[in-house]
Amino acid sequence: MRTPLLLQSLKARVESLHQQLGPLAGQRHFSPRFDRQLFSHGGARLGDYLTEASESLAHLEAAVAQGDAARVAWLAERLVLQIEALQREAATADLRRHENAHRPGGRLHARLAQYQEYERRLLAMKTEREQRRATHADPQLQREIEALGERLARCRTAITRTERALERITR
């Protein structure tokens, strides 16, 4: 009886994480973020971990459909731990901005984190303007959306340029 409700709740939490961490999903990290027992993927991007959490949800749904109670319990506990870890990561994203400053190219790492934060904020602003435009036919909103799109393109160019510079340093 409660299993469909619990599945729906977990699915909503995973979807919420995708929205919350979406702008951060492409950020490259230079050290592992999570324990190997929690996430089997040792990806360099937060989006890889989000994908694994979604896969865990799909495996859980399949185990529920098969009626394998032991597997359902294990998968549900693992998924909840993954969700909690990703939520902690989202909460500490601002604090981690300068974590690589002591490494070679520390200024580049700090600059990359700053550009990624700009990208996240620009995406949020653009999404908010697009939602307002859907309800209001204001030509000013369209101009703002276009300007934000241009700023976002310049920001992504700066991110790419900085990532290439970091790759040259770390080779």
Describe it for me?
It is built from 5 helices and no strands. It is an all-alpha fold. The longest helix is centred in the last third of the chain and has 32 residues, at about 140-170. The protein is flat and about 55 Å long. The chain starts with a helix and ends with a helix.
Keywords:
mainly alpha
Instruction: Find the count of extended strands (DSSP E, 2+ residues).
Output: 0
Shape: flat
| Uncertain parts | none
Helical run tally? 5
Largest sheet: none
Gyration radius, in Å? 19 Å
Helix content: over 70%
Strand content: under 5%
Helix-strand string: HHHHH
Q: Which structural class best describes the helix and strand composition?
A: mainly alpha
Q: Terminal Cα separation, in Å? A: 55 Å
Q: Mean of residue pLDDT?
A: 80
InterPro entries: PriC, PriC_sf
Protein name: Primosomal protein
Pfam family, one: PriC
Topology:
Blueprint: H1 3-21, H2 46-66, H3 69-91, H4 106-135, H5 139-170
Helix pairs in contact: 1-2, 1-3, 2-3, 4-5
Protein name: Primosomal protein
